[in-house]
TrEMBL record, chain A:
The chain crosses the membrane at residues 16-36, 48-69. It comes from the Bacteria. This is PLDc N-terminal domain-containing protein. Keywords: Membrane, Transmembrane, Transmembrane helix.
UniProtKB/TrEMBL annotation, chain B:
It comes from the Bacteria. It comes from Planococcus wigleyi. The keyword Membrane applies. Keywords: Membrane, Transmembrane, Transmembrane helix. The chain crosses the membrane at residues 21-38, 78-96, 117-143, 155-177, 184-203, 229-248. This is ABC-2 transporter permease. It holds the Pfam family ABC2_membrane_2. The keyword Membrane applies.
Automatic annotation (TrEMBL), chain C:
It comes from Planococcus wigleyi. GO terms for molecular function: ATP binding. Residues 2-233 form the ABC transporter domain. It holds the Pfam family ABC_tran. SUPFAM superfamilies: P-loop containing nucleoside triphosphate hydrolases (SSF52540). This is ABC transporter ATP-binding protein. The keyword Transcription regulation does not apply. Keywords: ATP-binding, Nucleotide-binding, Transport.
Length: 83, 255, 237
C-alpha cells in the first residue's frame, strides 16, 4: 500500500506489465464486485459512504473487508432486537 | 444422511447467492499472483521505489526455486492474510446463524446435531477450498512460468494435505462459536488459536509434530521434496477435527 | 398425549426460568400459556421444542422422550417462534421444499398440502418471490405453512397472532380448532386473553417462573374471567 505515486513512473513497465496486468485486472474485478454489492445494499448498511471510501482506497483489503464485514452490518438489525 | 445433504446444499446455495464463491476466489487469485511477481522483480521494485538507498541486493544471489516461491505464497500469503480473511468470513456465517435464530430453526427440526455440525463443516470447507484451490493453481501456473517447472503431482498432494488444515480451521471456528457469542471475539480467538498452532509446529519435537499444525509441516514438505515424512499427522489432524465437533455438539446440547 | 413432568430450567446466574412445570395434555386439547413478559413462557416452550436443554424433569410425547429420542420427538412437533426466522435469499417455495426434505415428505404431498394451505392464507404468486421481500405478516404465514406441512401431533406457537391480519388470524384460529379436532395437541402462548377464553380448553398461567394456574378453561371461567384472574395473580408484587 505505497502511496508515493511518482515511484510508479520510474519502474521498468514493459518488463513487468505482462505479468502485472492480470493482478490489476483481478483487482479491478474485485472492486467491481464490491461496488456492485455496495450499490445494491447502500440503503441497508451502516455508514455506506465510509465503506465506499474503504473499497476504493484500500487496495485489495478494502473490497474484501467490505464483503466480509461491511455488507453484514445492517441497520436496524431485527435479529438482535429479538434476542 | 439426507438431512446432511440437504443442509450442506442449502449452505452452498446461500453462499453462491451472496457471491461468496466469486469474491473469495478473486481474493486468493490476487494473493497467488502477487507473491511470485514480487519475488521475481524484487530487485527492480527496490531499485525504483524510494527508501531503499541503504539496501543492496547481491547480484549473484541464487534465484529462488519454484518450490520456495510456492512455499512463500502458501505459508506467507495464504496462511497469514488469507487465513485471517477466511476466518473472518467464516465467523460471519456461523455467528449469524446463532444470532438470527437460524440455529434454533435447525434445532427444532428432526435434524441430529451431528448432521447440522458436519454440514456446516462440509459447506464452509467446500467454499474455502474452492477458492483456495483456484488461487493456488493460478499461483502454480504463474510460478512455473516465472521460475521453472515443478512437479504437478507434488503440488496436488500438497493441496490435498493443506485442505485438511483448512478443515481443521473450520472445525475450530465452529467449536469456538459454540463458546463465544460475539462474532468479533469468535474471529479473534480462532485467528489467535490458528496462529498458535502454526507457530508451535515449527518446534522440532514429536509432541508439536502431532499438534494440529503438524499437517502443515507434512504439506509443506511435499513442496520441498523431503522424504522423511510423518504421515501420522493426517490421523492426528482428523482426530482433532472430530474432537472439535463432538465438543461443539456437547456445548450446544448443554446450552 | 404430551406429558411434561417436573420441568425445571433456570438460566445460569439468574433466578429467571421455569420451575416444576407439570402438564398433561391429551389429543384435541388447545392450551394457552399466559403470563407477563419474562415470566417463563418462552423458556418453557424452548425446552419443549428442544432449542435448549433443561435441568430437571422430562418431556414425553406419545411415550417418546425428548431426552432419549430427540429426533423422533421433533418429527412430531411443529413450532413457530415469536419472530419468524427464514433464509432471506430463498423463495418461499424453495424454503418449503427445504423443510419438506428435512421432514422427508415427498414432493407430491408437499404440493398437495401447499395448494390447500396457500389458498387459505391468500399467498398467491408471492410464494415464488424472495423471502427477503416479504412483510412480517407474510413471513409469519410462511412459517405457519411450514410447520403444518408434516401434520405434527404437537403444534407449539409462540405468540402466533402478533402481526397477522384479520383474515390470517381467523384462518389460524380455525386451523387450530381443526387440527385439534383431528387429534393434534395445540399449545400456544399469548397475551390476548379474550381469544384464549374462546379458543382453549386448558390454561396455564406462569408467574415468575412458577406455575400458578393449571386448569381447564371451564373450571377457571366458573370463578372469574381470565383477565380478572391474571390481574389478581400479578397484583401480589
Amino acid at each position: 500500500m505505497n502511496t508515493d505515486m511518482s515511484a510508479l513512473l520510474e519502474i521498468d513497465w514493459p518488463q513487468i506489465l505482462p505479468f502485472a496486468l492480470p493482478i490489476i485486472f483481478f483487482n479491478l474485478l474485485l472492486i467491481g464486485v464490491a461496488l456492485y454489492d455496495w450499490y445494491k445494499r447502500k440503503v441497508l448498511i451502516v455508514s455506506p459512504y465510509i465503506w465506499l471510501v474503504i473499497i476504493l482506497l484500500l487496495q485489495l483489503l478494502g473490497p474484501i473487508l467490505y464483503l466480509v464485514i461491511g455488507r453484514r452490518m445492517i441497520r436496524n438489525d431485527y435479529s438482535r432486537e429479538a434476542s | 444422511m439426507t438431512n446432511f445433504y440437504t443442509l450442506t446444499r442449502t449452505e452452498l446455495v446461500e453462499a453462491a447467492k451472496e457471491f461468496k464463491f466469486i469474491w473469495l476466489t478473486l481474493f486468493f487469485v490476487i494473493l497467488g499472483l502477487t507473491q511470485p511477481l514480487i519475488t521475481k522483480y524484487m530487485d527492480v521494485i527496490l531499485e525504483n521505489v524510494g527508501g531503499a538507498d541503504g539496501i543492496t541486493i547481491d547480484p549473484n544471489r541464487p534465484v529462488p526455486s519454484s518450490a520456495e516461491v510456492l512455499l512463500s505464497t502458501i505459508s506467507g500469503q495464504f496462511n497469514q492474510i488469507g487465513l485471517i480473511i477466511l476466518i473472518i468470513s467464516l465467523m460471519g456465517l456461523i455467528a449469524a446463524d446463532r444470532n438470527s435464530g437460524m440455529q434454533d430453526f435447525i434445532l427444532t427440526r428432526p435434524v441430529s446435531l451431528r448432521s447440522y455440525l458436519v454440514s456446516k463443516l462440509a459447506g464452509h470447507w467446500i467454499i474455502s477450498m474452492f477458492s483456495i484451490s483456484i488461487g493456488a493453481v493460478v499461483s502454480y501456473v504463474y510460478t512455473i512460468f516465472l521460475f521453472g517447472s515443478f512437479s504437478f503431482s507434488n503440488f496436488v498432494l500438497f493441496l490435498l494435505l493443506y485442505s485438511l488444515w483448512i478443515l481443521f480451521v473450520v472445525s475450530l471456528a465452529i467449536l469456538i462459536s459454540t463458546f463465544v457469542k460475539s462474532p468479533i471475539l469468535i474471529a479473534v480467538t480462532t485467528i489467535a488459536a490458528s496462529i498458535f498452532f502454526i507457530l508451535i509446529k515449527g518446534f522440532n519435537h514429536l509432541l508439536f509434530q502431532l499438534s494440529p499444525g503438524g499437517i502443515l509441516n507434512l504439506a509443506e514438505n511435499q513442496l520441498l521434496s523431503v522424504h522423511d515424512l510423518n504421515y501420522f499427522s493426517i490421523a492426528t489432524c482428523l482426530a482433532f477435527i472430530s474432537l472439535n465437533l463432538s465438543w461443539a455438539s456437547r456445548n450446544l446440547k448443554k446450552a | 398425549m404430551l406429558s411434561i413432568n417436573n420441568l425445571t430450567k433456570l438460566y445460569k446466574g439468574s433466578e429467571k426460568g421455569i420451575k416444576n412445570l407439570t402438564l398433561d395434555l391429551v389429543k384435541g386439547d388447545i392450551c394457552a400459556f399466559i403470563g407477563m413478559n419474562g415470566a417463563g413462557k418462552t423458556t418453557s416452550i424452548k425446552s419443549i421444542v428442544g432449542i435448549h436443554g433443561f435441568d430437571q424433569g422430562d418431556i414425553e410425547l406419545d411415550g417418546v422422550s425428548i431426552k432419549k429420542n430427540p429426533q423422533e420427538f421433533k418429527q412430531m412437533v411443529g413450532y413457530s417462534p415469536d419472530t419468524p426466522v427464514l433464509y432471506g435469499n430463498m423463495t418461499g417455495y424453495s424454503y418449503l421444499e427445504l423443510i419438506g426434505s428435512i421432514y422427508q415428505i415427498d414432493n407430491a404431498t408437499i404440493n398437495e398440502q401447499l395448494n390447500t394451505l396457500l389458498k387459505k392464507l391468500n399467498f398467491g404468486s408471492a410464494i415464488h418471490e424472495l423471502i427477503s421481500t416479504y412483510s412480517h405478516g407474510m413471513k409469519q404465514r410462511l412459517v405457519l405453512i411450514s410447520i403444518l406441512m408434516h401434520n405434527p401431533k404437537l403444534i407449539i406457537l409462540d405468540e402466533p397472532f402478533v402481526g397477522l391480519d384479520p383474515n390470517a388470524t381467523y384462518f389460524l384460529q380455525e386451523e387450530m380448532k381443526k387440527r385439534a379436532a383431528e387429534g393434534s395437541i395445540v399449545l400456544y402462548s399469548t397475551h390476548v386473553l379474550e381469544v384464549a377464553e374462546k379458543l382453549c380448553n386448558k390454561v396455564v398461567m406462569i408467574h415468575n417462573g412458577e406455575v400458578v394456574v393449571n386448569d381447564t378453561m371451564i373450571n377457571l371461567l366458573s370463578e372469574s374471567s381470565l383477565s380478572e384472574k391474571f390481574r389478581s395473580i400479578t397484583a401480589h408484587e
